[in-house]
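Hi there, hope your week has been kind to you so far. Do you reckon you could talk me through the fold, stretch by stretch? I've dropped the whole record in just underneath, so have a look:
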Amino acid sequence: MAWHGRRLLVLACALLAAGVTAAHGQVPAEFKVDYQFARGGKAPLLVEFRTNAPRGYAVKWTFGDGATATGTKAAHVYYAPGVYPFAATLYDEAGRPVSRAQGEFVVKWNGEEELALTLVFGEGTVLLSSHGSVVYSNYPVTLTLDGKDVQALPLAVSPGVHEAQVRFTSAGGEVLSKTVEFTVRPAETDLTLEQRLIHLINNARLDGWDCAEQTGGHRPLPPLTPTVMNNMVARSRALDMAQGDFFKVVSDTDGSTALNTAGALGYQPEAIATTIAAGQRSAEEVMAAITKAGSFCDSLTGDYGSVGVAYVEQPDSRYGRYWTVVYTRP
């Protein structure tokens, strides 16, 4: 998810009363308030604030919806669409107000209230997440696995059929729910194969692979950095395909994409791309397929900085072997 940022500048002396000086600390020449929020500005909207308040000074926030906070940094969720005046007041070490920044948020409507349920798979585990739900209040969302309330944490699951559900009761008393049934099957992974594919991907970038001409020797690209988060997203996507016996970038299980999986793990990349392959026994076979597949090859040579790879083997599935590559920026 891309973030938009803004900055408010207010002269530090704006609230200094006659005869009041900053004897207890250095007041900044400008009191700066930065904030960022998700592209689109739609409810429910998380806004992250920070200031340049000097050490020893305090900041008090009002967000325009009745909520307040203190601290040089603050995060606030605007649950409902509307116009919200917000302000940050800077207090010196003696507790005197010395500056104030204020602005206005316009939070957009995001459609009718709707629940999202994303399943993040690990080896013998599943995490349930309601990330991406559209709910216009801070009433709690309830997650259940096989009829028991659970938290959004990795949970051990045994082989077999399971049922996950998310529920929400709105302020008006309307009950919303979404249920997903999924099957867990024993599967094998292979770290050596995964590392080999990452090596081949970076070699192709360094060699300046050109997708149109199908040759190397062109402008080299920087290697991609393997990350734990990218690997977790890739692992979940590959396990989902192997256990659900499908071959798609959009999950047959819960309708999620790699971006949804990343969001469920608390990761909001600026850009993300997914490459999938099935049936290949070696990283070399996968690489040969990637370099010849239009959009997948474009991802290989795209403007990304991080990568994650997963290989999952499930003999009882249609293809037997499933590969996922996840590219992200930043």
Remarks:
- The first strand starts at residue 3 and ends at 11.
